[in-house]
Amino acid sequence: MPTWGSKTIRTWFVALLALAGAVLGVSTSLAAVTANPTPTCTNNICTVTFAAGNEYSYTVPAGTPVTMTIKGARGGNGGNDSSAGGTGVGGEVVSFTVTSNGSAYSIYPGNSGSGGGSAATGSGAGAGGTSAYPNGAYNGGNGAAAGNVGSSGGGGGGGAASVVQQGANLYIAGGGGGAGGGNNGCVGSNGNAYSSSFLNTSGVGTAGSYPGNVDGSGGGGGGGGLLGGRGGTLSVIPACSGEQHGGGGYTGSNSVPAGATVTANSNLCLLYTSDAADE
Predict the structure, then answer these.
(1) pLDDT, tens digit (0-9, with 9 covering 90-100), for 150-208
(2) Which bin fits 185, alpha (ψ -120 to 50), beta or left (φ > 0)?
(3) Which terminus of the chain has a smaller tally of CB atoms within 10 A, N or C?
(4) Residue 26: how many CB atoms within 10 A of its CB?
(5) Strand, coil or helix: what is 65?
(6) How far is CA 151 from CA 82, 142, 189, 192, 235, in A?
(7) What are residue 269's DSSP bridge partners?
(8) 163: closest CA among 37, 40, 18?
(9) Span 137-146, pLDDT tens digits
């Protein structure tokens, strides 16, 4: 068992779980803080799982190194036509270590974007994912509806960013881009990974492009982030029977300390050590 001086050290593993598919209304004011779940501890490893869409407050003793791994929510899939819609991309995952100043961490796990509707006419837009962060500041963008002529797949909504805040320090993992809808004979475009060339000017993802009064699929919404991702744009591809084809949205950007690493796969968590006397 590890020790800190003469005291026993207990390792805490705090997981933030973004529940797939749960979409809330846009938050326009500070959400009520949800009570932290009771930790489950095995062999001095304690895990606390948080539901997406809520706000939590968690305090780590001052001076304690805290390793954070924060995962943005996934973008929604595109709706189907005669060909399948695209697949939304997973959110960014960032991992880094900071030292707690003893103030509470406010924790806002993001919701995934909703999938687009299938065989839709002038409808089928997938809703962008949301979080409980005030004023919907890091929500995903909505996917676009299918065109008003014929029927096609709607675009999937972009995933919300997941946010951890302690005072002025703001840590953000960008939400994934939503996918474009399918067309007649043309599979929908998948959501796009992060690209610095495809970012919004605010933290909210941009909505996907809407075909309007023609036959075509909707574009996917951009993911939320420090800067939100752009929504998918329209194009005409010969394989799509001449229909408008909605592209996939782009993943939002991160906000992390210098030297932070971006990893491919990880739980969304805080990891730190604390004296047993502090439990």
Answers:
(1) 999 999 999 999 998 988 888 999 999 999 999 999 999 999 999 999 999 999 999 99
(2) left
(3) N
(4) 11
(5) strand
(6) 9, 19, 17, 24, 17
(7) 15, 69
(8) 18
(9) 999 999 999 9
